[in-house]
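Q: Sequence in, structure out?
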Amino acid sequence: MIYTVTVNPALDYVIQLKQVNRGEVNRADNCSFLAGGKGINVSQILNQLDIDNTAWGFVGGFTGKELVRQLNQRHIVNDFVTISDVTRVNVKVHAEEESEINAAGPNITAQEITAFKARLSDLQKGDIVVLSGSLAPSLPVDFYKELLPTIKEAGADFVIDTTGQALLDTLSYKPLVIKPNHHELADLFNTTFASDKEMLECARKLLDMGAQNVMVSMAGKGGYLITPKHFYHAKAAVGTAVNSVGAGDSMIAGFVGTYVKTKDPAQSFRIGMACGAATAFTKDIAVKSQIDAVLPQINVEEIS
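A: Exactly. Output:
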């Protein structure tokens, strides 16, 4: 089983209009509420790949109920901890420019945190937990790291999608895969890259620090996969990028979902690249037909 964790999900209130006139009353052309969160995005792609998964996290209030209703409607299995505070609403304004106002998130009590950690008792050997997304302000900054000993003791693997020191602090627990982009990778080592060779040398250091696999995404320049034995490269698919939200989550989902089936990092990388591109080419998280349409463009080349 794959468990996706979204500890600070949101209802995204998406407002569409031709332009925003500041200081005036504006009328929207269209409005909608959409369940959002990085772990939820991963679950959506896993469903498209027909991979069993369960979404974990915290939800509360009328917004939390609507979020769960939408997940149930999409047939995303979920087992959230219900909290006394209200799940946040993020406002997305799509006009002549796209603007976002993201709320900080709800207050989560110590009792509710304990209830969430109890979910980890369900883990079994071979399971994978995907940890991604921002933390609610009331959670400790090392919340994800606190979960790792229990995950590893159960014989499960984990994937973490975060950056900076928070990422480095998890490497000794041996994440199955991490996915910094090339800018984030440079920031980890406080450097800049004059060549892809320099970038790959830094990615290799992350393996030495504990990561089992490292994917480096490079937007239109494709991506790399670094494993203990090989380096792989894949060129980017050709298409019009209309959406960066969820592309990284989709890439992780494609890798993890395929790895569960095949234990083949190169094939998992190929599917991950296709899922990421397919989401980038659509206004929402990609569906199976869109992933299948992109997949023939993705060729993985072993470079060493």
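The chain has a mean pLDDT of 93.
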